[in-house]
Amino acid sequence: MPMASSSVNVDGQKETIPPVKTHNYFSSLWADMSFSFDKQVQEGYAEAIETVKEEVRIMVMAKDSKPKDKMMLIDTLERLGLAYHFEQEIEHQIERIFKFHAQDDNDL
After folding, report:
1. What one GO molecular function would you report for this record (predicted)?
2. Are 53 and 85 contacting, i.e. CB atoms less than 8 angstroms apart?
3. Rounded CA gap, 87 and 95, in Å?
4. Cut 0.70: pTM above it
5. What is the spatial distance between Cα 66 and Cα 70, in angstroms, rounded to a whole number?
6. Which own/partner contact pairs does 101-104 have at CB distance under 8 Å and 24+ positions apart?
7. Residues of the chain with pLDDT > 90: what percent?
8. Structural domain spans, the chain
9. Alpha-carbon distance 74 to 60, whole Å?
């Protein structure tokens, strides 16, 4: 790529400004990609997400799991940022665990 120089007249004298070298930058990796938001694909993802959410809801509400395991599951959901999907179920389970342990302490 040829570089053009330019001239500037300063105090009656002509000075030549050297050309600025231009760089050949790589084009963006995203420029040629086209994203397809096929409605059927999106609906399939939404359905799969709802299925997994229901499985997790069943795990949270399971009555046969130990309180320690239940609290570890709740902690994991909190750490993953997913607990907001199960707020009512988590609150219910924590109340159950608290009442169980409060009742257990009264028996002593």
Report:
1. terpene synthase activity
2. yes
3. 12
4. no
5. 6
6. 101/67
7. 51
8. 37-108
9. 7
